[in-house]
Each structure stands twice: as structure tokens, then as C-alpha cells.
Design brief:
single chain, alpha+beta, eight-stranded mixed beta sheet, three-stranded antiparallel beta sheet, 11 strands, 45% helix
């Protein structure tokens, strides 16, 4: 049955109306103004006088351009379709039908972005892993989780950077911090925040069944100091000799930095960078990010209102359970989503868990 010009007119009107609503929800106009400011900064010949600042500006510009371009393209397509359909040229019906269908399909994909409505959802993610109860098994479990998130990031074409790493005594990791960069990295990974429990035959303890815990901390990477204001008098800053990688020059200087936020008790220690200044800047970014996350969790307006986090990586606090023995299952204890293929999940296939958590949180609101 042939599509009429009147039907096309109704469909493009619906598309335009829903598109305008979506553009308001993502603050398209404000983001476009922000991009114009970044356009000016990127075009400034003196930009690279400060390489660190320049790199942040260029990365922010590229991320914003990548986010806005498909929406701007769709907006232009809708406007062109509206103008062409208004001409009422029936010879164009077939072409207009094809173009409108493509625009509707594009909008359907872009609407997935509307699920990320949190104030920091569009930011990069800092993923911290901490071995909990379970000794060497727990440290090995932390390393397994690190590989899982790296593989997920690789499969989704996100950039990955190891920010800090503390190896286990016999195997695995005591802790590690990973930076995952890409569109809505934090919005997609925030549901991973919590305690993850593993049940398996231990490779370290005479093949006995072992239960291990690891804490996954997912926070938005807040790089702008004005987003979370930190009072210098609330900080205790220690420098010490780095014991990490980086060559002889790192290990012979007091380049490692430990920053304690006294009101909350949050401690951030960084030693992977080559200089004390770089370690301090990285530590401040992570501290700012952790405080931003804590503000979200505690619904606090000011940093001064925050209380320290107290969640322990042990029994009773887990959000997800991974069972490798005596049966195979991964179950999210919040959403109820279950997979019978833990090997697939540990190989990076987290998308079903991510989507189910997004649907779960949308249902709560």
C-alpha cells in the first residue's frame, strides 16, 4: 500500500516533536554553546603553550563533537524533510519515505542516550578494584574483574589507561584504578559499583571451594576543579618514595603522593606517574571524582555535608554473584538478571547486565 504525502507529513511532525523534546532533555543548546567556546580555544595558536591543559581541552572538544554531531545531523534531516514534504510534490514520495525511515531509525538509536540522565553520565569513568575478604583468591578475583572491564572496554572501542596498580603478594591485585574513556562511560558502568562475589574451586588452596569478594568502585572522572570545590585546609598531603613501575628515576625520588580528605577519611595514593606534580594532579582528580560520586549517593549539596563511605567488600554487601562451581551462573542481586555463562561475562560481555540495570533504575524513577 503506497504511502501518502499526508501520512509522511504526520510522521515527520511526530519525529520533529519528539526530537525537540529529546534535544531539550540532553541540553543540546547549552552543549552547543559549550562546543563553540571549545572551538575558539582549540583554534587559538597559544593553546599548546600549556600541553597538559591543551590535551584536556582537545579531548573535551572531541568528545563533545562526537556526542553532538549525530543529533545535529538528525535535526537538519528533520528540517529538510519538513520543507520538502511541505512542497507536496508527489513525485518525491518514494525518496521521502526512504529518507524519513532512515531518520526515524537514527532517532531510535540516539534515544538510547536519553537513559543517561544523571549529571555525570556523559563523563569518562574511573574504575577502582579492591581485593576484599578471601586472601590470595580475592586478589586473583580482583585481577579477573580488571580483565573483564578491559575486555568490555575494548569490545566497545573505549580508551583504557591504567592509573594505578598494586599487585598481590602471591597473585592478582590488591588494588587497581583504570580510566575508561568514551561516550557515556560512567553512565554505562555506574551500575558495576559495589561488591562482587565469586564462588569457585580455589586454584590456590588444594582445589577447595572458596568464596571471594572484590569491591568495584565506579566514579565519574571530574576534571574541572569548579565542579567539586575542595578546601585546601581539609587535605593532608604526604609524599613518599615510589615503589611502582616507571624506571630508576621514579624509584629514587619521593614522587608518590598520598592525599587524605580529612572530613570524609577518603585516601587517594598515586605513584604511577613520573613526577610528584603529575601524581598530585592525578590524585586530586580522583579525589574530586570520588567526592562527586559521594555527593550523588548522599544527595548532598556541598562537600562539607558529606560523610565517609563505609561499604566493606564482604558478606552481605554484594551486588552480583559469580558462581563457577558447583554450577555456573552470574546473577545481579538488584535487577535479578541472570546469565548461565560466566565465562562469557568474564570475557567482557557485560552489556546485558548494563542494560538491565539501566531499565531497573528507570523503573525506580
Amino acid at each position: 500500500m503506497a504511502v501518502t504525502m499526508e501520512e509522511l507529513q504526520k510522521r515527520v511532525a511526530v519525529l520533529s516533536r519528539e526530537l525537540n523534546t529529546a534535544l531539550e532533555r540532553i541540553s543540546f543548546a547549552a552543549l552547543s554553546d559549550e562546543k563553540k567556546q571549545l572551538d575558539t580555544q582549540v583554534a587559538d595558536a597559544s593553546l599548546w603553550d600549556d600541553p597538559d591543559s591543551a590535551q584536556q581541552i582537545v579531548q573535551a572538544h572531541a568528545a563533545l563533537e562526537k556526542r553532538l554531531t549525530p543529533w545535529a545531523h538528525l535535526q537538519q534531516s528533520a528540517e529538510e524533510l519538513t520543507e520538502l514534504i511541505a512542497m507536496q510534490d508527489v513525485s518525491l514520495v518514494e525518496d521521502l519515505t526512504t529518507q524519513l525511515q532512515a531518520a526515524e531509525d537514527e532517532f531510535r538509536e540516539l534515544k538510547e542516550e536519553l537513559k543517561f540522565s544523571g549529571p555525570y553520565d556523559s563523563l569518562n569513568a574511573l574504575v577502582g578494584l579492591h581485593a576484599g575478604a578471601g586472601g590470595t583468591d580475592a586478589q586473583d578475583w580482583a585481577a579477573m574483574l580488571l580483565r573483564m572491564y578491559v575486555r568490555w572496554a575494548e569490545q566497545n572501542k573505549y580508551s583504557i589507561k591504567m592509573v594505578d596498580e598494586s599487585p598481590g603478594e602471591e597473585a592478582g591485585l590488591k588494588s587497581a584504578t583504570l580510566e575508561i574513556s568514551g561516550p557515556f562511560a560512567y553512565g554505562k558502568l555506574k551500575g558495576e559499583h559495589g561488591v562482587h562475589r565469586l564462588v569457585r574451586l580455589s586454584p590456590f588452596n588444594a582445589e577447595s571451594r572458596e568464596t571471594s569478594f572484590a569491591k568495584v568502585e565506579v566514579i565519574p572522572e571530574v576534571t574541572k576543579p569548579d565542579v567539586v570545590e575542595i578546601d585546601e585546609k581539609d587535605l593532608k598531603i604526604d609524599v613518599y618514595r615510589s615503589g611502582g613501575h616507571g624506571g630508576q628515576s621514579v624509584n629514587t625520588t619521593d614522587s608518590a603522593v598520598r592525599i587524605t580528605h580529612l572530613p570524609t577519611g577518603i585516601v587517594v595514593a598515586i605513584q604511577n606517574e613520573r613526577s610528584q606534580l603529575q601524581n598530585r594532579e592525578t590524585a586530586m582528580t580522583i579525589l574530586r571524582s570520588r567526592l562527586a560520586q559521594l555527593q550523588l549517593e548522599q544527595h548532598a549539596d556541598k562537600v562539607s555535608e558529606l560523610k565517609g563511605p563505609n561499604e566493606q567488600a564482604a558478606w552481605g554487601n554484594q551486588i552480583r554473584s559469580y558462581v563457577l562451581h558447583p554450577y555456573k551462573q552470574v546473577k545481579d542481586l538488584r535487577t535479578g538478571y541472570t546469565s548461565s555463562d560466566p565465562d562469557d561475562v568474564l570475557a567482557g560481555n557485560l552489556t546485558p547486565f548494563i542494560l538491565s540495570y539501566l531499565e531497573y533504575t528507570l523503573g525506580e524513577n
